[in-house]
Amino acid sequence: MRPVRATTSRGFTLIETALAVVIIGVGVIAMVDAQRAFMQSNAWSNHAATATYLANEIREMSRRYPRHDPVTGLYLEGPDLRGWGPEIGEVVVTDFDDLDDFDTTVFGAGGGDGPINAVGEVIYEIDQYGDIRLDDDGVPIPLIGWSQTIFVEKVNPFDLADVLDDAYFDPPAGTFEGRAVDQFPLRVTVVVSYEDPATLDVEEVTQVTWIVP
């Protein structure tokens, strides 16, 4: 009969335990980093979608406006240009009646009540229930941190990248009848930016440009 050998249970050594802790720790760190990257990517996607929406609202609004004021027009009085920008009495966006009125206008984030939609109405913050958020006094809160800056530029009809002075015109030459100061296409650019309420850092999120012939 063979003798029975006594056995003893063997536990984890200190080195094995340390290695296990390191492996688990590396896995946890990797999961945390992946989660952080996902959250940052998701936040940027939301930012990009909001910025694109705000830019397209201005573009949609611009469709109903002529290039220059339908009453006074755009003209030269001696060396001085008349009619570019808001006319007398045009104070708020609902007063504007042509595209050049919008040049260098800012909506939102310090430049007005808030960013606007395609019909000139302020866009407000929405809560989780789909209702407009109100402050402590019951006043609607404009979309926080977002702004729309609009630039309107006169461009060369044969080179749309060539920006001309607002008062530029082509004088007659030979058989060419000339081109009046109000007969040039316009390039409209909307820059949508976000100002972080915590840090006050301003970041340009998107820019949309189109030509009005």
Q: Could you describe the 3D structure shown?
A:
The chain is an alpha+beta fold and 213 residues long. It has one domain (21-212). It has one helix at 14-62, and strands spanning 75-77, 80-82, 105-107, 146-156, 159-164, 186-195, 202-212. The strands form 2 sheets. Strands 3, 4, 5, 6 and 7 form a 5-stranded antiparallel β-sheet that branches. It has a two-stranded antiparallel sheet with strand order 1-2. Strand 4 (146-156) and strand 5 (159-164) form a beta hairpin. The longest helix has 49 residues, at 14-62. The mean pLDDT is 87.
How do you describe this structure in short?
This protein is of the alpha+beta class and 213 residues long.
Which structural class is indicated by helix and strand composition? alpha+beta
The overall average pLDDT, rounded, is 87
Helix and strand element order:
HEEEEEEE
N-C termini distance = 107 Å
- Fraction in helix: 10-25%
Uncertain residue segments: none
Number of domains: 1
> Given the C-alpha coordinates, what overall shape results?
elongated
What Rg, in angstroms, do the CA atoms define? 30 Å
> For the report, how would you describe the main beta sheet?
5 strands, antiparallel
Number of helices: 1
Number of strands: 7
- Tell me the fraction of residues in β-strands, as a range: 15-25%
Quickly list its features.
7 strands; 213 residues; alpha+beta; elongated; two-stranded antiparallel sheet
Task: List the SSEs and their pairings.
Layout: H1 14-62, E1 75-77, E2 80-82, E3 105-107, E4 146-156, E5 159-164, E6 186-195, E7 202-212
Antiparallel strand pairs: 1-2, 3-4, 4-5, 4-6, 6-7
